[in-house]
Amino acid sequence: MVETIHHDYEHSSGPVFTVAVPYARLTDVTPTESNPCEFTSLLVGTALCGTILTIDATDSVAIVNVAPGFIGNWEVRNVLTYNPNVAEVSWGAINVGDLVYYDNSATMIGLGLYLSTSPLDLTGAANTLFGAIATITSEAAALYPKGGVTASTQNCQVMQRGAGF
User: Fold this and answer.
1) Euclidean distance between the first and final Cα of the chain, in Å?
2) Could you tell me the residue ranges of all domains in the chain?
3) Rounded CA separation 123/25 (Å)
4) Can you list the residues of the chain whose pLDDT is less than 70?
5) Coil, strand, or helix at residue 68?
6) Residue 156 CB contacts under 8 Å (≥ 6 apart), including other chains
């Protein structure tokens, strides 16, 4: 899987809440700094999500920002639905306010991606809500909608839901 380290964060004012998380408690057990992450959970689609700030490879621990409202730049797949266990079926333009999900589908993993606009994964299971498309400047807002009705991956500003149950 291709991993990308993003250092071009947009961020909102407010607190940063960090927690130390063993790699084994993350869906992706090989975390990369600045990527979105999902904690493992007892119930599908209910996990806590956040942003990996740093990793400690010696102790296999990631330091994760779980503050609600943090805005970061991430690649988001515009998939809306899947043909269960087969492939992506439909896509749509991504717009400000659209919900974004942490998506563990095989197609996403193969692309090196974590976030999509699909509430269900390739198997038909619920994806965990990561956050929503949000911008903090009028210049960024003018770039939306992004993508269209064909498959694409777009760099988007996403406000994470974090620990804002």
Assistant:
1) 31
2) 18-65, 71-160
3) 22
4) 1-15, 165
5) coil
6) 73, 74, 75, 76, 94, 100, 133, 146
